[in-house]
Amino acid sequence: MLGYAKDRETTAATVRAVAGGAELVIAQFNEPDTVAHVFGPDSPEALRRYGGTDRYVGEVAESLRGEWGDWALLVVSDHSQESVTDTVPIDLHSAAAELRREGSIVDEGAAAVVGGAMADDPSWMVRVAGVEGIERLGDRSVLAWAAPGRYFAAGQVPVRGVHGSPRTAIQVAVVAGGHPGVEELAARIARPAPAVHVVGPGDCRSARHPLPTGLIDRPRQSVLTSDGCCHLETPCIGVKFCV
Ligand SMILES: [Zn+2]
Questions:
Q1: Ligand 1 centroid to 15 CA: how many Å?
Q2: How far apart are the C-alpha atoms of 172 and 195, rounded to whole Å?
Q3: Among 101, 99, 92, which Cα is nearest to 128's?
Q4: How far is CA 224 from the centre of its chain?
Q5: What confidence score (pLDDT) does residue 221 get?
Q6: Which residues surround ligand 1, an ion (CB under 5 A)?
Q7: Residue 57 backbone dihedrals phi, psi, to 5 degrees
Q8: How far is ligand 1, taken at its centre, from the CA of residue 177, in Å?
Q9: Ligand 1 centre from 34 Cα, in Å?
Q10: Residue 70 C-alpha to ligand 1 middle, in angstroms?
């Protein structure tokens, strides 16, 4: 759905990789996110999807049965979702146009990142109906998030579930397997979430921010550098994950 692989296909490819002798397999089960966006995170359709994907994870675990002692199985989410109750989106773009300042707005569901000169004085954002809060990410970038039930978009987008607000930063993590490193992995993953560095347009200094989700759309490149961080870059925003 929406260009992502079906969870059934992901499961088959994962099981094939294990059977083929792979030592590290990373798989993304995307359908729970997509179905929750379309029908809402608490909808019967989404609940059925969560159960279906849970069974696929079970199939992957089953495929490890013969060599359980060699494997660590980590299942993690990247965010939760919240229901949209007001289908009229929050329009930061129209309010920004009246300011006549250069900059950019990246709508990301229940949050938006505003960069450039229009983020110099962000007080206008909290006057836009539906904006619950703002937080400065860097000298020239500001995160704005929506009140519960609302979302950001320049035009009507038919969604019933969104993520991006601090409320959706909740994570789930399950660590299993018989590998001797499993306990250490579980202890590490239980520590606080990785920090995120967000750099707005024209802003070379990064700011630490504890929101690890939802700020990136279609990363252009991903480079693991000598400082051990993963750097993702888009034309307007750079984000650096540091564990
Ligand atoms: Zn999503």
A1: 25
A2: 17
A3: 92
A4: 19
A5: 31
A6: 33
A7: -60, -35
A8: 28
A9: 6
A10: 33
Tell me which amino acid residue 137 is.
L
pLDDT digits (tens, 9 = 90+) for 8-43: 999 999 999 999 999 999 999 999 999 999 999 999
Q: Cα-Cα-Cα-Cα dihedral of 180, 184, 186, 187, to 10°?
A: 160
Tell me the average pLDDT of the chain: 80
**Cα 30 to ligand 1 centre (Å):** 8
Predicted confidence at residue 207, as pLDDT, reads 36
DSSP 8-state code for residue 227: T
pLDDT higher than threshold 50 for residue 242 = no
Q: Provide Rg for the chain, Cα atoms.
A: 20
Region of 21 please: left (phi>0), alpha (psi -120 to 50) or beta.
Answer: left
Each residue's pLDDT tens digit, 101-158:
889 999 989 999 999 999 999 999 999 999 999 988 877 889 999 999 999 987 777 8
For tokens 């013969």, what's the residue? 66
| Gap from CA of 115 to ligand 1 centroid (Å) | 22
Interatomic CA distance for residues 178 and 114, integer angstroms: 46
